[in-house]
Amino acid sequence: MATDEGFAAGAKREILGNFARLIDLRTGASHSEATQARWTAHDFALFAALLTVGYLAYYLHWADAGLGRLFVVNVTAACLHFAAVVLARRGRQLAAALVAVTTANIQIMAAVQVLGWESGLHLYLIAGGVLVFVIFTERQAPWRWFFILGAAVTFIVCQTVLSPGPERSVPVEKLTIVFSINAVLTLVLVSALAGLFYQRTNQAKAAAARSAATAEYLANTDVLTGLSNRRPLIEALEARGLEGDYVVAIADLDHFKALNDEFGHQCGDRVLAAIASGFKDRLRVTDSVGRWGGEEFIVVLPHTGIEQGAALMELLREQAAETVIPCVGHVHRVTMSIGVADGTADGLSHHVVKRADDALYDAKVAGRDAVSTRGLAESLPAESYQENPRASRIRRPGSTPGR
User: Fold this and answer.
1) What's the confidence (pLDDT) of residue 358?
2) Which region, left, alpha or beta, applies to residue 303 given φ > 0 means left and ψ of -120 to 50 means alpha?
3) What residues contact residue 306 under an 8 Å CB cut-off, 6+ apart?
4) Ranges for the GGDEF domain (predicted)?
5) What DSSP state is assigned to residue 121?
6) Bridging pattern class, strands 336-343 and 370-374
7) Which of 223, 236, 271, 266 is nearest to 251 (CA)?
8) Which residues lie closer than 8 Å to 33 by C-beta, 6 or more apart?
9) Given this model, what pLDDT does residue 66 score?
10) Half-sphere CA count of 202, side-chain side, radius 13 A
11) What is the domain partition of the chain in residue ranges?
12) Is residue 337 a contact partner of residue 363, using CB atoms and an 8 Å limit?
């Protein structure tokens, strides 16, 4: 029993999946408007052809009702609808749409002329007014309005002018059945078209949302490293400046220009990507890291003191120095100089960035491959750093100025 239920569930999922793929093939947002219109014209022509064949089978029961002319019209119409299907499959969307819609209108007028408005075939013209917005593209808008106006005029003529000749001998009860069938099919067709419009609208909204998300991602993300760029980082800084204590660190790769000049930008890009990956692996979920520009990175550490921030940056500096980065037959090791500054909820995040940049300069002056700090009270010029006892630095043993 469980096996049978599992098989039935799998079969149901497969059927629904195939149906979804079929719908996407015709109306998917990934397709152009012309492609969607082509498949809609194809499906309408096929539907009209099969429906015409159904009517022909039904009319055979009225062999003695004087419907010979209507029978000939519908045989011709079925052939034209199938021809429209072939045209659509060959990419001739406009020709297929014109043939299918024109043939359908002629069929309706011929049927009303023979059977009378009581047959209800002219009700299809209501759906036709909606249909032409689907099977004609925006570039073919004049054809839309031509057929909408034609459908309106045809509907009025069928309802008020056309009347069957005296040779009609179809019983009223049979016409009532035909009217009911046509009314139901018209309702189904209009509902299907409304659903199609609804689906396309949702697909267009989803596609617009995806495009907006992609554009925002590209605008806010450095493509090379996958890190944030300046804009979201500045926003993060402003938010941190309003929430409490935080730390800003600016890291710069030492002698990066020389690496680029000697081994090329391809290797330089690999180095940047590897260092960025190291930052992402080490930092907390609540931290923000991004590429500040060139070979500089910036880190925002919320709810963090300057000593804790400097210790974390020291770990990152050591990690970068120990990382071996292969590129085109070479391996590279790089060092970083890092400046660290702290801030509070004073709304002056740009001051914190300035102090972190000054601390970075201190690390460069001290010999590179170092972490330097500038606390809240430490805003002296970088050249007076050596005489500033409040400015602390953490350096790797053995590093020397001018390295």
Assistant:
1) 93
2) left
3) 247, 340, 341, 342, 373, 375
4) 244-376
5) G
6) parallel
7) 271
8) 137, 138
9) 63
10) 8
11) 31-214, 230-395
12) yes
A 10 A CB-CB count for 67 gives 22
Q: How far apart are CA 152 and CA 158, in angstroms?
A: 10
- Token pair for 393: 């630095």
Q: How is 272-329 classified by DSSP, letter by letter?
A: HHHHHHHHHHHS-TT-EEEEEETTEEEEEEET--HHHHHHHHHHHHHHHHH--EEETT
Q: What's the pLDDT tens digit per position in 52-107? A: 898 888 777 766 556 777 888 889 999 999 999 999 999 899 999 999 999 999 98
pTM value > 0.90: no
Question: Which residue, 399, 36, 377, is CA-closest to 203?
Answer: 36
In the structure encoding, which two tokens stand for residue 178, read together?
Answer: 């035909």
How many angstroms separate the Cα of 176 from the Cα of each of 112, 121, 335, 371, 397? 14, 12, 89, 91, 100
pLDDT class of 3 with cuts at 50, 70, 90: low
pLDDT digits (tens, 9 = 90+) for 178-218: 788 888 888 888 888 788 778 777 877 888 888 888 887 77
Cα gap 244→343, rounded to integer Å: 8
**pLDDT tens-place string over residues 76-89:** 999 999 999 999 99
Q: What are the residues whose beta carbons fall under 8 Å from the beta carbon of 90, sequence distance 6 or more?
A: none
Binning pLDDT at 50, 70 and 90, where does residue 169 land? low
Of all residues in the chain, the percent with pLDDT exceeding 70 is 80
Residue 319 CA to residue 291 CA, distance in Å, equals: 18
Taking the C-alpha atoms of residue 239 and residue 235, their distance in angstroms, rounded to an integer, is: 6
> Looking up tokens 């806010």, which residue turns up?
220
Locate the DSSP E strands across 9-152.
Answer: none
Helix (H) or strand (E) holding 75: helix 68-89
* Separation of alpha carbons 260 and 255, rounded Å: 9
Task: Please answer whether residues 18 and 1 qualify as being in contact, where contact means their C-beta atoms are separated by less than 8 angstroms.
Answer: no
pLDDT in tens, 305-336: 999 999 999 999 999 999 899 988 888 889 99
DSSP three-state, residue 371 = strand
